[in-house]
Design goal:
Elements: H1 9-17, H2 24-33, H3 45-53, H4 69-76, H5 83-95, H6 102-115, E1 119-123, H7 126-136, E2 144-148, E3 165-169, E4 191-197, H8 206-216, E5 219-223, E6 231-232, E7 235-236, E8 243-247, E9 260-264, H9 267-277, H10 307-337, E10 344-346, E11 364-367, H11 377-386, E12 392-393, H12 434-438, E13 443-445, H13 454-469, H14 472-475
Parallel strand pairs: 2-3, 2-4, 4-5, 5-8
Antiparallel strand pairs: 1-9, 6-7, 8-9, 10-11, 11-13, 12-13
Helix pairs in contact: 1-3, 2-3, 5-10, 6-10, 7-9, 10-13, 11-13
């Protein structure tokens, strides 16, 4: 018996709908699908019958999303830029203060207070902030960092510039973050740090990771570029490890234009990070090992934040908590509507865990092809897009399979940079990280709602629901997933 159709009532109801005219069925679909979900979390027989009986848009049926394009854009537009940012930027330009530091220092103070950290240091990019975090943790020639393979390259690739290398760990298939169970056996005497990425907003399992790190005496670097303002068991991500790096580029949930931030409670890490690329602030340090070299940047870098970015960041931070509260309300509403739908599962912490997704950057859904007759996520996404909702298959490609981590000699060592300063060949061939290599076919990008507009969100949820419940119609013609699925980055640079 179909668990969704006790006694065959759904089939009987649906068969009656087949006689509806082409004009009447879209109206009934629009009227019924977008009613509020019943308190019990289960669609009524009538509502589900309409979904089941309506032909998929990909196959010539009516679209589930009928809201006009302007209403949809208002729900997803980002970043929100006001006259306050514009006024501040013009002031910087007119004063010729673009390369100054006084606004950035104010931003740092405000960011540290908001995050709950002792120190914050502004950077030109999140990439630079994470490199400085590694340098702050004394990652150097011959050292190793451990990092998940499914992430943006800037979580780890800067290790090359420090003479170090990367050992990749597998991910948890539910959180999509590094799996603590795959970390400890990868720690060697050369391991200096574990880079923990709160991937696409989901907090990693920090309790388990910190227990391993403290016992094995390695540092923990949190990459919070996807998870600004997120909580792990009531604690803000970025305050749990030894140091954290954040991207603040214009695609993120917390925006400063093109910038990064580092936070830590450790004075030596803070001063080492500053010494790497902030020559104008490298003076009167308290760390004895740094004092003889004051005045010049140890890394030969200039990493200060542009003050127009600092202006934008200050204004955005002031409004950020209210804005992500609305994002969380909208995104959780979307997933609540889909809670009992087969094939698609929310990528979010449990509601009673004290953990949150922050700004839900690059939001993903967990796809379950086995619940939909093996339908590929590519075909599923194609059908959802035809319904008028956004959806795309995959996520970041696993880094350990890219040639840069296997064959490329970046600096002329005469051997691949990955192993140039290593004591062994630590390259990881196909098959070495099975979850990371299979995840492409088990996740999809979902709408990132910035505004709580139930009428629009219900229609988007209906598109996903309609496709999932009519999956059998899509099996014929399913070409499967492409080997080239996914991307090395999310942001579209135009």
């Amino acid at each position: 018996m179909d668990r969704r159709d006790p006694g065959g009532l759904l089939q009987e109801y649906a068969s009656g709908l087949q006689n509806l005219t082409l004009h009447a069925r879209p109206f009934l679909l629009g009227f019924t699908l977008f009613l509020d979900k019943p308190a019990a979390g289960i669609l009524s027989i009538e509502q589900e019958a309409v979904i089941m009986s309506s032909k998929l848009a990909l196959l010539g049926g009516p679209k589930a999303v009928t809201q006009d394009a302007q209403a949809v854009r208002k729900v997803s537009a980002w970043p929100i830029v006001t006259r306050e940012e514009e006024k501040g930027i013009v002031d910087v330009l007119r004063r010729g203060a673009m390369s100054g530091g006084e606004i950035t220092r104010e931003f740092e103070k405000e960011f540290a207070a908001w995050e709950g950290a002792k120190y914050a240091l502004g950077f030109s990019t999140g990439t630079a902030a994470l490199q400085a975090a590694m340098f702050g943790c004394k990652v150097g020639v011959g050292d190793e960092i451990i990092c998940p393979s499914v992430t943006y390259w800037a979580s780890c690739l800067q290790a090359y510039s420090l003479g170090a290398t990367v050992v990749f760990a597998d991910i948890d298939p539910e959180t999509l973050c590094v799996n603590p169970a795959d970390i400890e056996h990868r720690i060697t005497p050369r391991t200096k740090a574990i880079v923990v990425v709160h991937y696409v907003g989901h907090p990693a399992d920090m309790d388990a990771i910190m227990e391993i790190a403290r016992r094995r005496r390695v540092k923990v670097i949190e990459d919070v570029s996807h998870a600004h303002g997120g909580l792990y068991k009531g604690r803000k991500v970025g305050t749990i490890g030894d140091v954290a790096g954040y991207s603040l580029m214009s695609g993120k949930s917390l925006v400063a234009g093109e910038a990064g931030m580092l936070t830590t409670d450790n004075l030596e890490i803070y001063e080492r990070a500053m010494a790497l690329g902030h020559y104008e602030r490298f003076e009167n340090f308290q760390t004895p090992s740094l004092k003889p070299f004051e005045g010049l940047p140890l890394g030969g870098y200039k990493y200060r934040m542009h003050q127009m970015s600092a202006v934008v960041g200050r204004v955005q931070l002031k409004h950020y908590d209210a804005r992500i509260a609305e994002i969380q309300k909208a995104m959780n509403y979307f997933w609540d509507l889909l809670e009992d739908v087969p094939g698609i599962k929310a990528h979010r912490p449990a509601k009673d865990s004290g953990s949150t997704m922050g700004g839900w950057y690059a939001a993903r859904g967990l796809y379950r092809p086995e619940e939909l007759g093996g339908l590929s996520v590519t075909r599923f996404a194609e059908a959802v897009k035809a319904e008028g909702a956004s959806c795309s298959p995959g996520c970041n490609r696993p880094l350990h399979l890219h040639p840069l981590f296997n064959t490329c000699d970046v600096y002329g060592h005469g051997k691949p940079t990955r192993i140039a300063n290593a004591d062994r060949d630590l390259r990881q061939p196909p098959g070495s990280l099975p979850v990371s290599e299979a995840v492409m076919g088990r996740v999809c990008a979902i709408p990132w709602f910035k505004k709580y507009r139930p009428a629009v969100i219900r229609q988007f949820a209906a598109a996903y629901k309609k496709v999932a419940l009519n999956y059998r119609d899509l099996l014929e013609g399913d070409q499967g997933n492409s080997q080239a699925m996914g991307r090395w980055n999310f942001f579209s640079h135009s």
